[in-house]
Amino acid sequence: MGQRLLDKLKKRKEPDSGQDQGEKERGSIRLAHFIIRRKGVIESIFAAGCIFSLLAMLFVNVNYDLTEYLPASAESRIGLDKMEEEFGYPGTARIMLKDVTLYEAKQYKDRLEAVDGVDQVLWCDSTVNIYSGEDFINQKDIEDYYKDGCAVMDVTFVEGDTAKSTSKAIDEMKQITGDKGYYVGMAVQNKSLTENVESEMSLILTVAIIMIFVVLCVTTTAWTQPILFLLVMGVAILLNRGTNIFIGTVSFLTNNVAMVLQLATSMDYSIFLLDSFTRGKGEGLDDEEAMVNAIDEAINSILASSMTTVVGFLALVFMNFTIGFDMGLVLAKGIVFSLLTVLFLMPAMILKFAKWNERTKHRPFLPEFNKLSSWVYRVRYIIPTIMLLITPVAYVAQGMNDFLYGNSAVGASEGTQVYADDQMIVEKFGRSNMMLALFPNTSPVTEKEMSDQIEDLPYVKSVTSMANTLPAGIPEEFLPYSITSQLHTKNYSRMLIYIRTKTESDQAFKCADEIQSIIQTYYPQGSYLVGETPSTQDIKSTITDDYNRVNNLSMLGVFLVVMFSFRSFIIPVIVMIPIEIAIFLNMAIPYLEGDTMVFMGYIIVSSIQLGATVDYSILLTNNYVSCRKSMGKKDACISAIKLSCPSVFTSGTIIILAGYIIHFISTTAAIGDLGHLIGRGALFSVFLVLTVLPALLVLCDRIITSNEWDRLQKFLKKRHDRRVELLKKGLKKMAGYGNAAGNEPMEVNGDEV
Length: 753
Hints:
Radius of gyration: 34 Å
Strand content: 5-15%
Structural class: alpha+beta
Helix content: 55-70%
Number of helices: 28
Shape: elongated
Number of domains: 4
CATH superfamily of the largest domain: Multidrug efflux transporter AcrB transmembrane domain
């Protein structure tokens, strides 16, 4: 029996001792050999992918309407769908003509209404005889439409705000009005946003590439290496943009910011691989051996680095406001393509560039960072203490920011022509915020009562409905179909309500709620209030609920990745502390400066900053753990900072530049704010990782150098050794009994047990 037990233990033990490690090593080496052997095939696959992407990216639709991302359960989303089903959803605009007489304004109005793509232009000529002369017209009756030589008109288009025919119609209308015209409204906002974003992002990408090229020239050791990096990243970006065709439609924010963010956040992977290759060449290996060694050495770092970024981006997918799904998926996909491109295409590119890199070698421009490293160690208690005092204040301040949520915050932000035109119109005629009430077409009497009650509200400018348009006793059939079709269908009625508020403000939300309650009183079932204000209210409630979910998921995801990398529950907390403090500081500054932020940028940047910059903490911690094996705490800390600084400064500078380039060039608030938050957040992350984290590593040295996993392994090994010793004694005793019975004595090898 004892012999059989020993045989079983031998069979279980012998294959496991070195096989797993060998297979793992052979797996990474085998992958490296495969990549090098098949580099021609791999290059062909990537070339085919680039050609496909160049064609496919032309067919990716870009959406500029934030209401499209509301969940299907939102009241305004249901109302918009119902209105589109019953009446269509035409685009709208508002025009002011300056320095015109009543007669001239009428001439302009008739010409504008004749433009192809324009459905109708509403002005005071529908209720007042303009040709009777200004002396015979009561100015109070028309002051909402004409005063001080200025006329304001409401335009309805045949198709939606984002339709090409609507955009073309606006161009023709601007040609007609010349410098006398001032244009606002959703159709104008969308057109302006489309044109601005397309032109600005071309400039942003060009400037970003130039600046990143300069950074790489400074931080690399050959003049051709930056070209290599940008070429490889360019392929990854192109593949990501092309494969957006499988999503179908992406938001304008995703379409334009994803390129720069992908370039900035995944440049590390190329740097890791080339650094490993250069070290191999320095050790005397030939090109292919050095590349095999580089892939084997860098693959774990690249995978760990990319996983934290992917997890941070994927947290956005779980937003109910589905622009997060859109952006999270595209950004995570971009990181995956960067990873695949670096692992499979870049080795072939490095081998092709090897001779050029040798010929264009130059001395390193980066310093050794000796003084910085020593200084950080000397102040290891001062800066963390300061951060400990500042962090609670920053945490409270970042939760007290003022935000904007809706379309107007994006398309009509300060600095745009739409904003300037809006200010001119508001100055002359006050604000005019249109909302649409949608309710069952049941009783004209009920409709009239509701219309009158809403019109009596002090903030209501005008109400247009079938009940108050049609004179008493006159059949609906007497009115032109162009009017009745806009207000009545077989099942539903529609009412146009203009109020004197902004589209997004506390007052606007209060007014919308009051109007909604009146509509619900008359039509408890099947009634809706739609428009920019109700949609913004739903966006606000949806995206605010998303914030905690996204923040918690991104932290949990990054925590798990770091936990498995370091096999510790405590190290991920230490690693994430400086990044979370950086996020709090970044988000607190707008409150301290009194700025109003676009909330969409706020929620997205929290995940991006965590996912993209936690790599710096991981790199520094890894270097500290490695140095600690052969050095004391002080020397290990200083050496870890010196080793980490080149990579952290290179990657961090690229993200900072990318963010601030977007901020300073873009006139679109959502994109500009996003860039500012990304750039400033990366700056804080770099500073805190290089100052606060080293102090935490030294303070928690015992946990870092002997984490829970190590202690568990030691405990299990000790327990295993005790059990083996007991088993050996038992088996020897059994073997002694067998010998006494005349059997052969058994040899027991402790290693086999």
